[in-house]
Design a protein that fits this description.
- The protein is of the alpha+beta class.
- Helix content is 35%, strand content 24%.
- The chain has 13 helices and 13 strands.
- The protein has a nine-stranded antiparallel β-sheet with strand order 4-5-7-6-11-12-10-9-8, with helices on both faces.
- Strand 2 and strand 3 form a beta hairpin.
- Mean pLDDT is 94; it is low at 85-91.
């Protein structure tokens, strides 16, 4: 039986691609490998064998470095870290912690949260509120009826997205220059959420989109100008050629080759429609029920709400980024100086991630 594909064997997998796909990979990515060597004392050998299987595995560690030449996102994969299984943390205490917070302000949003200047938007499973401490002029909340953020359904996700969109349109009606719409969902404290009750956030900004969204648009524009091709389409093609893609109707789910952190998945699609909701729900369901993820971030990059001067046709109408934020019981932060200022260091193998989908 052939061994499953692995990120540590990416150079061999790229070498086995069809010539056109290999050429496209080289256009999009820089790939290199190195070996990290350590000399452990004999006193550590027992612990190393229990932790990693053998001392030789630790003495010479293969490291794979992948950099997206277009966006300059880079990721370092360590062979030892990529081999670690993705295990679910115990959820019993988490359930009790979430239940203990029931009855907070988000459980009674009409009394415990402020409204926006244009009022609230009521969905079937959610309601909006104005964020009390804003980081943009229009910054709202989509508060889920379900207190436990991990008890989402396809219907509740669809409702949250529809409610958020209606909120954004109301913000745009209140200020015609507010056109840059952004949706995010931080689940539990490791993701940055300060309140456990299930909720997403939404903003509409003026004059220019947020830096990382605009950086992606400009990178895609430079790519089209240089090569006459669509960046997102070529990115999808390379991921699918390597076996890192999963299709949900017209929506492509990619186990990202240069993830910002663990198990990142990109969704690329033509609209925030039923197929996109199917894909997003499938990813989150796989996260929680097959990969043991408890804390995650979801971010949606979308075209502006109204015509603008800059060219957005170089990007698909919807690009979503979903990432695991690590074990809730681990007191160590998952992002350090490397991730903030250099390149991401990732332990999860994208080939195992796409298997879970």
């Amino acid at each position: 039986m052939p061994e499953p594909h692995s990120i540590v064997h990416l150079p061999e997998l790229v070498a086995g691609l069809a010539p056109e796909d290999a050429k496209l990979f080289a256009r999009l990515f820089h790939l290199s490998t190195t070996v990290g060597e350590v000399v452990p004392p004999e006193s550590m050998e027992g612990w190393i064998k229990r932790q990693f299987g053998s001392v030789e595995t630790v003495r010479q560690q293969r490291i794979v470095k992948v950099t997206n030449r277009i966006t300059l996102e880079g990721t370092l994969y360590n062979e030892l870290r990529a081999r670690r299984p993705m295990e679910a943390p115990a959820a019993q205490d988490l359930e009790a912690m979430i239940e203990d917070k029931r009855g907070g302000p988000f459980c009674k949003p009409l009394e415990g949260t402020p409204a926006d200047i244009f009022g609230r938007v009521q969905g079937q499973h959610s309601i909006t509120a104005s964020n009390i401490a804003k980081y943009d002029g229009f910054h709202g909340l989509v508060i889920f009826d379900e207190h436990n953020p991990l008890r989402f359904t396809r219907e509740s996700i669809a409702d949250a997205l529809e409610t958020a969109r209606r909120w954004a349109e109301k913000a745009h009606e209140a200020d015609a220059q507010a056109v840059y719409y952004f949706f995010m969902w931080n689940c539990l404290w490791k993701s940055g959420a300060s309140i456990l009750h299930g909720h997403a956030q939404t903003t509409v900004s003026r004059e220019m989109h947020y830096g990382r969204v605009e950086a992606l648009r400009q990178a895609a524009l430079r790519y089209t100008t240089a090569y006459g091709q669509n960046y997102a389409a070529d990115l999808v093609r390379v991921h699918r050629a390597l076996g890192l893609g999963q299709r949900y109707g017209p929506v492509e789910a990619l186990a990202h080759l240069t993830p910002i952190k663990e198990k990142e998945i990109l969704l690329v699609g033509p609209a925030v429609d039923a197929s996109f909701i199917d894909a997003l729900y499938a990813v989150l369901e796989a996260y929680v029920h097959r990969m043991g993820v408890r804390a995650f971030n979801v971010a949606l990059y979308m075209h502006p709400l109204a015509p603008v001067e800059e060219d957005w046709s170089v990007l698909p109408p919807i690009v979503a980024r979903i990432v695991d934020r690590g074990d809730l019981n681990n007191r160590t932060a998952d992002i350090g100086a490397m991730e903030l200022y250099a390149a991401s260091v990732v332990s999860s193998d994208p080939f195992r991630v796409v298997e879970a989908l």
